[in-house]
């Protein structure tokens, strides 16, 4: 049985799916995309999660020490939370941890499964492209929506959504590359401890 870090010792092993594969330019591209997405999403999750935790802690301390909370303690989490959520969504997409219905692919042979999985991933790309474009449009219109205490525009939340959709698209492109080059067994399967199964 392989552990999550075993792929570091074997360059021929795929990062997201732990499936051995022959070397190739497109597969190296998929591995590179996965490394970038993993780094970006984990960094955003750590920074925003830590900031949210520290804000909550500081607000509780301020309530007990001074009798009132920090005036910006409600606004700042509202601006940070979208970054935290979309980073988790992108990381989940990369690892195959989102909900999926597997009844239809199981009715087909290997080639049929491969085609259905590729089609499903193309639908994910199309849906996230719409979200990305619309979130960017709304974000550009939201500069005037300022928070009362800090004066932060709401536009950053929409840009976070657009960026998260872009990361999901990149993660899905990497999955499609593997599906086409390797087959349906390259579809990422999440660790049970990550999904609560």
From TrEMBL:
State its location(s): Cell inner membrane
Q: Which domain of life is it from?
A: Bacteria
What residue spans carry the region label Disordered? Answer: 1-21
Q: What InterPro entries does the entry give?
A: DctQ (IPR055348), TRAP_DctQ (IPR007387)
| Pfam families in alphabetical order | DctQ (PF04290)
Name the keywords, alphabetized. Cell inner membrane, Cell membrane, Membrane, Transmembrane, Transmembrane helix, Transport
Which membrane topology term applies here?
Multi-pass membrane protein
Give me the stretches of Basic and acidic residues compositional bias: 1-16
Q: Which residues cross the membrane?
A: 36-60, 80-104, 116-136, 156-180
GO BP field: C4-dicarboxylate transport
| Gene Ontology cellular component list | plasma membrane
What is the protein's quaternary organization?
The complex comprises the extracytoplasmic solute receptor protein and the two transmembrane proteins.
UniProt record similarity statement: Belongs to the TRAP transporter small permease family.
Supply the name of the protein: TRAP transporter small permease protein
Origin species, per record, is Paracoccus sediminis
Its taxonomic placement starts with: Bacteria, Pseudomonadati, Pseudomonadota, Alphaproteobacteria, Rhodobacterales
């Amino acid at each position: 049985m392989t552990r999550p870090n075993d792929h570091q010792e074997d360059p021929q092993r795929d990062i997201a799916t732990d499936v051995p594969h022959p070397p190739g330019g497109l597969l190296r591209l998929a591995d590179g995309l996965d490394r970038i997405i993993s780094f970006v999403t984990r960094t955003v999750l750590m920074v925003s999660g830590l900031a949210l935790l520290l804000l909550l802690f500081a607000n509780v301390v301020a309530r007990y020490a001074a009798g009132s909370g920090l005036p910006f303690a409600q606004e700042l989490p509202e601006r940070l939370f979208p970054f935290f959520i979309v980073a988790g969504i992108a990381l989940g997409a990369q690892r195959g941890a989102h909900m999926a219905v597997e009844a239809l692919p199981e009715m087909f042979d290997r080639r049929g499964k491969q085609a259905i999985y590729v089609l499903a991933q193309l639908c994910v790309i199309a849906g996230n492209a719409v979200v990305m474009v619309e979130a960017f449009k709304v974000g550009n219109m939201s500069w005037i929506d300022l928070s009362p205490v800090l004066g932060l525009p709401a536009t950053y939340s929409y840009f976070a959504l657009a960026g998260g959709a872009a990361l999901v698209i990149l993660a899905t492109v990497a999955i499609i590359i593997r599906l086409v080059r390797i087959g349906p067994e390259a579809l990422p399967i999440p660790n049970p401890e990550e999904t609560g199964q």
